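step 3/5: co-fold with pyridoxal-5'-phosphate
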Amino acid sequence: MASSATVIHPPTRLLLGPGPSPIHPRIYAALGQPIVGHLDPYLFEIFSDIRRLLQSCWGTQNEFTFVIPGTGTAGMETAVVNFVAPGARFAVFVNGIFGERLCEIGRRRGARLLRVAKPWGQVFSDEEAAGFIQRERPDVVAFVNAETSTGAWQDGRAIARAASEIGALTIADCVTSLGGMPINLDAMGVDIAYSGTQKALGAPPGLAPITCSPRAVEWLRAHESAVPYYFDLKLLADYYGPARRYHHTPPVPMFYALREALAIIEEEGLENRFARHKANHEACVAGLEKLGLSLLVDKPHRLWTVATPRVPAGIDDALARRSMSEHHGIEIAGGLGSLAGQIFRLGNMGYGSSAENVKLVLGALAEALREQGYTA
Ligand SMILES: *Cc1c(COP(=O)(O)O)cnc(C)c1O
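step 4/5: write C-alpha cells
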C-alpha cells in the first residue's frame, strides 16, 4: 500500500499512448544525480548543451532558445501571454483540443480572439490559412503543428508566410512533433515555438522548451506589457541567458534528464531517429488496417508520433483499453472531446518507438477487440 510503505514501488506500465512516453534507463539514472545550486557554473553548462541540442531538433538558429519549468501547457501560456497583449487580434487555427486550449488562454489574456476551425482530424490548406490571415489581419497567429488529440500534422509554412507578410508573429505548438518528426522551424518561418518533454523527446513531464526568432525577440524588447511574473520571457531570459540573474530555482534533476534525453537523440542522429519513428508509424498503420480499422486522418497529414484509428462500430473503447491494461500492462488512450469513444490514440514516441512495441500494442488491441466479438 502506497500510503504505509516507506519505499514506493510504482507499477511498470508500457506507456504507448499519446504521452507521457517511456523513459530510457539512462534518463532515470540522470534523475538520481547530485543536484547543484541554481547559479552553479555546471548547471549553466547543462543549459548551454540543452540549447544547442534543442536548436538542432527544432531546426533553428534562434539564440533565444531555452527551457522553462512547467509542462507543455506552461510553454503554451508563456508563448501567448508574452506576445498577445490584451486587446490584440489573436488568430488561432483550431482542429483539436490543443487549438481550443490556445483560444482559452487568449480569451483569458483579454485578446480579441479570431478563431477559425476545421473538423477534428482535418488540417488547413495553404489557401484557407492564407485567406483567413489576409482577411482578418491579426497581430499574432497560432497553430498546432502536431495535434495530439487527433493525430493530425499541420504544415505551418503557408500560415507563417501569410502572417509575416502582414507583420504578424506566428506561434507553433510543437509538443508532439519535437524530437520525433522533422520541424525545420526557420525554414517554416515560425517566430515562437514551444514543446513539452514527455512526448517525442522521451524525457519525464515537467519542462517546456521554448524558442523565439530574432524578430520575436525584437518585438519583445520594443513592447512593455504586463506579463504574469513567472512566465515573463524577459525575466526568464535574464536567468537562462548570459546575465544569470536569479528568477526562480530550476528543477535541476529535470534538466539533467532532458540533457540526457537530448544526448541520446544526438547519439542516434536526428535523421535516424526520424526514420525510426516513420518506419514504426508505417508498420503500426499497416497492422491497424490489417485489423480492419480505418484511420481518422488522411495519409499525407498523419503524425508519425500518434496514430488514431477509429473505434469499430459496436466496440466499447474504454472496455478495450482496460483489457489491454489489465492483461498486458499496456496503456493507450481514447479520444478527447467530440472524439471521445470514436478513436483510439496510439503513441509512437522516443524510447517507446520500436518494432517490438508496435507488435505488442497491435496484438493487445486485436485481443481486446476480439473479446468484444469483433472480427476483422
Ligand atoms: C500534451 C500537449 C500539450 C500540453 O502539454 P502538458 O505537458 O500536458 O501540459 C499541449 N499541446 C499539445 C499538442 C500536446 O500534445
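step 5/5: annotate
The radius of gyration is 21 Å.
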